[in-house]
Specification:
The complex is a heterodimer. By secondary structure, chain A is mainly alpha-helical. Chain A has 10 helices and no strands. In chain A, helix 3 (55-86) packs antiparallel against helix 7, helix 3 crosses helix 9 and helix 9 crosses helix 10 (223-247). The model of chain A has no long low-confidence stretch (mean pLDDT 91). By secondary structure, chain B is α/β, with parallel strands linked by helices. Chain B has 2 domains: 4-224, Rossmann fold; 229-286, 2-Layer Sandwich (Alpha-Beta Plaits), CATH 3.30.70. Chain B has 11 helices and 14 strands. In chain B, helix 3 (97-107) packs parallel to helix 5 (139-151). The chains are: A mainly alpha, B alpha/beta. Chains A and B meet through helix 1 and helix 4 of A and helix 2 and helix 3 of B.
């Protein structure tokens, strides 16, 4: 297990998204703020997700985590698919980097982008609603683990996709529905029983619920259950990503 | 220890339309310090062989070693010894020339490399483009950066896959002067090219591939000496005698026919006289690598 070369690749990947920061950081922050303004305004008087927690306060952690997840996914997936399509992945393929180094660098940079965007959303939206930070360790654990899971998933999608169209399909038909149906905008307890059960099959639900637990000290399910589900999902997805990298899936003929 | 050792390399691509045998039992060594040319028509397997060497493709059978390191079992050490200039003109649009070179060097564990980067930039005529973004460079300039990227970690073995395809005379000369200098300093060079006069001028030894098989392997001088040693060349607007048309190579008005000795030259000239063919610019010269290449490709037709 060699990590030689992981730091330079990680640094390059961070520099890559930072160079187009308007697109990769500022734009997602603005999108999240628009969600907050619109949903928060429309629903603030009608929904109380947890006792004593206003809807806008409830919404902020959900939006932060949604931004973390979507941007972590976008970073590794778009970087890889662009390099594959433009052909410049060859510069990396001829280097001595091991599959472990590739994984750590791509997923690490994805986590940085996800967490930077999440922090940006938090900084802007926190002024709209009071937050309590009751159990902050859950915020850190689920933020990092969720970003790592989606960064790994982005790596798989980036290796699999051969054109931008396939990448857009993965993003719009898998990532988007799973994020939107995970309880970002509502508590799953407000859903009919059937849909509550369906939501519990979605690992994104556990990431959002565990993350939100850190702010309010209440959650739809136990944070330990969420940690187990998210942790296991990460191990599985990371294992698949490492296997694909080791075998050169769709990058070495 | 050879710089590069190919041992019984086979490569089969399997797709929905069946399988394609791209390399068939290719074996040869390249000694340290050699300037080796790998020639062959399009689709012969040159790029596939280089891809196997570079780790871009996996051999279906056989082994490749670079400076004694197996490219699969000991890939990290093998790749540190290799500098690959790819055939495609690819670049990373996010970075400047200097950033591109620093990043590429860092993957190989090379730090504080600016003195060598400056030397590369100066030698390849890129000094005034160091801070330009890759997107702003012309095709020829991008090609120079590709060469610099391959050399940034000072690899002992340099592989150039058709580096002069579609580039101007100035870049070709700059490139060959620089690569020849590195070769004199001890770097091993493996070159594929379609410009046979380049291969003849630069390469001490040549291997030729046809349809995935190695059909010739010898020093350049032995290849030239061992094949048709004399060529009769002239220009004509007239139709050639059938006996000559069958053996000559005709390119527009230019006719080239091989002749092994003076008697054969005389009999070809007699044939032209007898038919009253009017010739211009008649010359008798030594066969060049292109003549040898075509002869070998024709002779090996039955092995394909």
């Amino acid at each position: 297990m060699s990590f030689e070369g992981a730091w330079p690749l990680f640094s390059k990947e961070v520099l890559r998204f930072w160079k187009v920061g308007f697109q990769t950081v500022a734009a997602p922050v603005l999108t999240a703020v628009l969600y907050l303004l619109i949903f928060g305004h429309v629903l603030s008087d009608r929904v109380e997700a947890f006792p004593g927690v206003g809807y806008t306060s409830f919404l902020v952690p959900g939006l932060v985590m949604m931004s973390v997840l979507q941007n972590a996914f976008a970073n590794s997936s778009s970087s890889l698919v662009q390099s594959k399509i433009t052909g410049n992945l060859v510069f990396l393929l001829v280097t001595p980097l091991s599959h472990w180094a590739w994984f750590v660098a791509y997923v690490g940079a994805s986590m940085v982008r996800g967490l930077v965007v999440g922090a940006g959303v938090m900084l802007v939206t926190v002024w709209f609603a009071p937050l309590r930070w009751v159990e902050p360790w859950w915020i850190l654990i689920f933020g990092a683990l969720g970003a790592g899971l989606l960064g790994s998933l982005g790596l798989i999608a980036g290796l699999w996709a051969e054109k931008f169209d396939q990448m857009a399909a993965f993003q719009n038909f898998v990532i988007m529905p799973m994020t939107f149906l995970s309880g970002v905008f509502y508590s799953v307890h407000s859903l009919p029983a059937v849909w509550q059960s369906v939501s519990h099959l979605n690992p994104f639900f556990y990431m959002i619920d565990g993350f939100r637990r850190g702010f309010f000290g209440v959650s739809d399910v136990s944070p330990w259950l969420s940690l187990a589900v998210v942790g296991l999902s990460f191990v599985m997805v990371a294992g698949i990503a490492l296997r694909l990298l080791a075998t050169g899936y769709k990058i070495r003929s | 220890m050879p710089a590069v050792a190919f041992q019984n390399i086979n490569k089969t691509y399997t797709g929905p339309r069946g399988s394609f045998h791209a390399l068939k039992d290719v074996s040869f060594d390249i000694a340290q310090g050699e300037f080796f040319g790998l020639l062959g028509p399009n689709g012969a397997g040159k790029t596939t062989l280089i891809s196997v060497l570079a780790g871009l493709a996996r051999a279906s059978g056989g082994r490749v070693k670079v400076m004694g390191h197996d490219v699969v079992d000991d890939y990290a050490a093998a790749r540190k010894c290799l500098g690959i200039v790819p055939q495609e003109l690819v670049f990373d649009p996010f970075f400047s020339v200097r950033q591109t070179l620093r990043i590429q060097g860092s993957y190989f564990g090379v730090k504080n490399n600016d003195a060598w980067i400056d030397e590369l930039l100066a030698s390849l005529g890129l000094a005034d483009k160091a801070n330009a973004n890759m997107r702003q460079l012309s095709g020829g300039m991008k090609r120079r950066v590709l060469v610099a990227q391959a050399l940034v970690h000072k690899p002992p073995v340099i592989v150039l896959d058709e580096p002069t395809a579609g580039v101007d005379v100035e870049l070709r000369q700059t490139l060959w002067q620089f690569i020849s200098r590195l070769n004199r300093q001890g770097h091993t060079v493996l070159l594929t090219t379609h410009y046979l006069e380049e291969a003849e001028a630069l390469c001490g030894r040549i291997g030729m591939l046809k349809q995935g098989q190695l059909v010739a392997l010898d020093t350049t001088s032995a290849l030239l000496a061992g094949r048709a040693s004399t060529m009769l060349r002239f220009k004509t607007d007239s139709a050639l005698p059938p006996a000559m048309a069958a053996v000559a190579r005709v390119t527009g008005r230019i006719v080239q026919a091989k002749a092994h000795d003076a008697a054969e030259v005389e009999s070809l000239l007699a044939l032209l006289r007898a038919e009253g063919v009017k010739v211009e610019d008649l010359e008798i010269g030594r066969a060049d690598l292109e003549d040898v290449f075509l002869e070998i490709m024709q002779d090996s037709g039955s092995t394909a």
